[in-house]
Amino acid sequence: MAAIRPFVGAPQATLFGRAERLDVMHAALINKGDLPRLANYCMLDDWTFSNPRKITPPNEIMEILRSAW
Length: 69
Prior knowledge:
Elements: E1 13-14, E2 21-22, H1 24-27, H2 35-42, H3 46-49, H4 58-68
Antiparallel strand pairs: 1-2
């Protein structure tokens, strides 16, 4: 945990069996390198297509994921 502490954002969530709190992305064990793949998977989800604001390219989802990171 000490190794990733400098890279972690605001403490929002816990890992199972740990007292330390991490930001949501790290607690979900999502690496920054996984974001493009995650954006592509989001494009396959029905909720993406029913979003009130039309989302077409995965790049729009990448913007959201980067801001959350």
